[in-house]
Amino acid sequence: MTHGAPVWRDVEITAVRELLAQLRDVENGPGGWEDRRTGMDAFGAAAKLPDGLAVESVDIAGLEAELLTPAGAAPNRALLYLHGGGYCVGSPRSHRPLAARLASAIGCPALVPHYRLAPEHRFPAAVDDAVKAYRHLLGEGVEPGRIIIAGDSAGGGLTIATAIAIRDSGLPQPAGLFAISPWANLAQTGAAYAAVLHDPMLTREGLQDMADAYLQGEGPGHPLASPALADLHDLPPMLIHAGSQEILASDATLLAERAGLAGVEVRVEIWPEMIHVWHAFAEWLGAGRRAIEEAGVWARGKLA
C-alpha cells in the first residue's frame, strides 16, 4: 500500500538536507571503515533522546549491547532492535535515538546488540549475533509473544534473516517483525535500483562495496543474506516501511510479495517523497515521527 502524502515544511527540508549531506560525506568519504563508524556514531550522539530514557550497557556472553528503557516501559515486553549501516558501520550508539523513539512508541525496553561488523567479521556473523541476543531475551524470561524484532536498512534485512534463523533452529517466533527500508536483496535486482535516479543517501556502488565486504565470496542469493529471496513460510507478522525516493523501495515490495505468497501476514507501506530510513530524522521531520508512532500502534497490537 502507499501511505498518504506527507506534509513537508521548508524548515524540515532544509534541516534534513543538511543532515543528509553530512551522512553522505560519512558514507562516501575517503576514510576507512573505522572513520565511517566514528562519523555515524557522532550523528547518533547529536540527536535528542526521549525524556526519562535509561541507558544500560549489557554483556551477552561477550556480545556488547545496550538496553534502552523508556519512562513507563512495560517490563514484560521487549524490542530487539538491529541497527543499520550496511553490515559494516553502525552501532547501538549511532542508532540510540531511533531505537529509543521506537521503544517509547511501543512502550517497552529495547535491546540493541552491537553485532559483529564486516569486513572484520564476514557473513553470517551478524545473523548469529542477532539470534544470540534473541536467545538472551528468552533466557531473561521474556515470552516470545512479547517480543518485536525491528531494524533499519541492513538491520531491516537482518530482522527478517534473524526470524528465518529462529524458525530453522526450532526456537519460538516473536510476535512481529518491523523492517524499515530493508536491504533485503543484496543481488540488487529490484526495479528501484534503476528507476530511482536521485537517492540522496544510497548508491548502487556503495551498496555493492558493503555487500562484498560482508559476503566475502558467499553468493548474494543466500537466504540469510537476501531474505527477500528466501523461503518465508511460518514467519511472524511483518510491517515494512520504505520511501518512494530510495533505491531499496523494490526490496521492500519484493519482500512483502514473497511473504504474502508464503502465507505470512504482511503490511507494506511506501511513503511518497520519503527517503531511506526517514524515521532516523524524526527530530526534524514530522513524517518520521508519524511513521514511528504508527509502527508503535501496530506493534502494540501484536503484543496485546
Automatic annotation (TrEMBL):
PROSITE patterns: LIPASE_GDXG_HIS (PS01173), LIPASE_GDXG_SER (PS01174). Keywords: Hydrolase. It comes from the Bacteria. InterPro entries: AB_hydrolase_3, AB_hydrolase_fold, GDXG_lipolytic_enzyme, Lipase_GDXG_HIS_AS, Lipase_GDXG_put_SER_AS. Residues 79-279 form the Alpha/beta hydrolase fold-3 domain. The active site is at 153. GO terms for molecular function: triacylglycerol lipase activity. Pfam families: Abhydrolase_3 (PF07859). Belongs to the 'GDXG' lipolytic enzyme family. This is Alpha/beta hydrolase.
